Amino acid sequence: MLSILRSLVQEVNSARDLQEALDIIVSRVQKAMNTEVCSVYLLDPASNRYILMATEGLYKDSVGKVSLAYSEGLVGLVGSREEPINLEDAPAHPRYRYFPETGEERFRSFLGVPIIHHRRVLGVLVVQQRESSRCFDEGEEAFLVTVSAQLAGVIAHSEATGAISGLSLTGEETQDVSFNGVPGSPGVAIGTGVVVYPSADLDVVPEKPTENIEQELELFQSAVQAVREDIERVANRLASQLRPEEQALFDVYLRMLDDGALPGEVAIKIREGIWAQGALKQVVQQYIRHFEMMDDLYLQERVVDIRDLGRRLLSHMQEGEQKLQEYPEHTVLVSEELTPAMLGEVPKGQLVGLVSVKGSSNSHVAILARAMGVPTVMGLVDIPVNQLDGRELVVDGFEGQIFASPSSDLRAFYQAICEEEDELIRGLEVLRDKPCETTDGHRVSLLVNTGLMTDVVRSLSHGAEGIGLYRTEVPFMIKDRFPSEQEQREYYREQLEAFAPNPVTMRTLDIGGDKALTYFPIEEENPFLGWRGIRVTLDHPEIFLVQVRAMLKASEGLNNLQIMLPMISNISEVEESLHLIYRVYHEVREEGYDIHMPKVGVMVEVPAAVYQIRELAERVDFLSVGSNDLTQYLLAVDRNNPRVAQLYHSYHPAVLQALVRIAQDAHSVGKPVGICGELAGDPGGALLLMAMGYDSLSMNAASLPKVKSVIRSIDREWAIQLLEDVLLLDSPHVIKSCVDLALRNAGFGRYLRPVKSSSAAMAEQAVS
């Protein structure tokens, strides 16, 4: 059966369209199960009816004509129950529905299984037999369930292709077809889709030796130089749209092209006798494997940059002609995997939106998009990219949604949002230098999370009061070795100087397990619970001591450094870390540096730490909750896994209860506590955290103005009452809805995305 299934999936994947795919399914399943009838009914979203789309054994004339209401007949029963139904005598069942045009009165045995994709019922797969004596056995039922599960994604993709083309299953015109992804950069854009493809494919490069090593080296070095010039040209083109510091993202590309980085490793393999293209493939794939293993989403996204560089180098070596791409006035750039260099190819002023199948809010593209103010949606897994070329698209970067071929009503609705957002941003600029303080005088510090200098300038322009989390991994990621003390010192000094005299909280190196550096590989069966964070650096004090020494020396004359320890789960880890930090502090002082002992804190991101807050707080100066990781650990959910991402919810009652406990326990021993994560940057989440007593909120710079505006407009008692109300609720979705409703009633509806129900309703909202 496995070989039959594999062959069936391959055939269906190669089908030209949905109808051909369905015809293949019914034909192959009928033969494999040796049954008289196999049919596929698909649920039409437009009419909410099951339509007979393909059959082998019933009258062919009935295809496309026979339809059942959502809960009608045995087909409707299978769909509504979302489980298989196996009957020896189908006509005797009270839900049996007879259609004379199909000729199915001849068939008595019935087995139907639902076709489900991401919790959505797409249709029902049915087999039937003439003899009432035949009952499909458990093995046959299991086979049909397996076929259904394997084919659901293919059908969903084909269905989406048809929907984008503007046609429903019945051939009627459809509009406002939406696809859900992940918000990458906030805002709304309306424009024309332009699909861009990678210039070359490393995966298909064959392995072969070379005898002319010098010729291969020369070919590769020529490609490196050409790509370096391409990147510099793109950076120059974007120079007028980005601040100089924001162009640091392109410096990351250029550093990876240094002789000591990727090119050096490729050259070594060429000298070992591998042809240039094969050597490039091996090195790039090795880099990709290491980066993909990492848990830190920000660093995980560097895979995109490595892969893009590899493709560009390969393209130059293959001497492929670059296709001249035309860009409309309002371009929405679409790709399987967008890269920063692709953004730079669009003429100035014409890029309005971005759509990427792969990636998340931590990718370089998302960072650049936020810096440039370009609405972006990432992670659109099921979308047929090639169908979006030339189509009008609406990009909703708030909700992580795109709409293909929008109706005039929907277009008007989103156009109104665009205008409102522009007006709102202009209005928030006046808050930049004002304190984040409630109407009854409660003060909260608003900080930012950074990793590159590109984040710093935007943070300062939005009125950030310091850095709540600086990811020190970045200097380690752009090297092919551990950076020296002096190299680290230069990176840290940039950040400390930019924000002086405000505090800059630097997290010590957070690698290990699933966050292996290319030059420090670690392989484990369960990396999420493995050797990582503080566990690695305490096992390697030579790494920890050099990093702390670089931080302390970088702080001389500024004294705004704070050090934060990641992944703490034991008191002993804190005590050992403090011993090393104090040792370095005294050594640096003895060397003649005039520095102050920095404040030291711990990140609360492991559930074990939640129950040791008092003990931890007695040993350090402050605590900071890593809410993203804490949520994932508490709920046992990897939010990057599309199969379970919907279970990740910052408003989950367990998460809120844990956050309340942390704040209470920290304050009970007189220590400040902050939080860095998505919840802090959400206006409603910020209100709840402020009510819990968090002293500082650290977030993405783009979120800061709205959070400040909301907090400055309410009194703390109102927020505390809201918190008490939602803590009585047991559903994260109900809690989120209650918080949003409270914000709307308080006059902050403009900060929330409106509820979308229908085009008419949207138009009505836009008009009102």
Description of the structure:
By secondary structure, this protein is an alpha/beta fold. It has four domains: about 160 residues, Beta-Lactamase, CATH 3.30.450; about 120 residues, Phosphohistidine domain (Glucose Oxidase, domain 1), CATH 3.50.30.10; about 110 residues, Orthogonal Bundle (Enzyme I, Chain A, domain 2); about 325 residues, TIM Barrel, CATH 3.20.20. Helix content is about 45%, strand content about 15%. Strands 7-14-13-9-10-11-12-8 form an eight-stranded mixed sheet. An eight-stranded parallel β-barrel has the order 15-16-17-18-19-20-21-22, surrounded by seven helices. A hairpin with a 2-residue loop joins strand 5 and strand 6. Helix 1 packs antiparallel against helix 2, helix 1 runs parallel beside helix 4 and helix 25 packs across helix 27. The radius of gyration is 29 Å and the shape is globular. The protein starts with a helix and ends with a helix.
Which characteristics define this entry?
eight-stranded mixed β-sheet; 768 residues; EC 2.7.3.9; Enzyme I, Chain A, domain 2; alpha/beta; 44% helix; Beta-Lactamase; 4 domains; 22 strands; Glucose Oxidase, domain 1; phosphoenolpyruvate--protein phosphotransferase; cytoplasm; globular
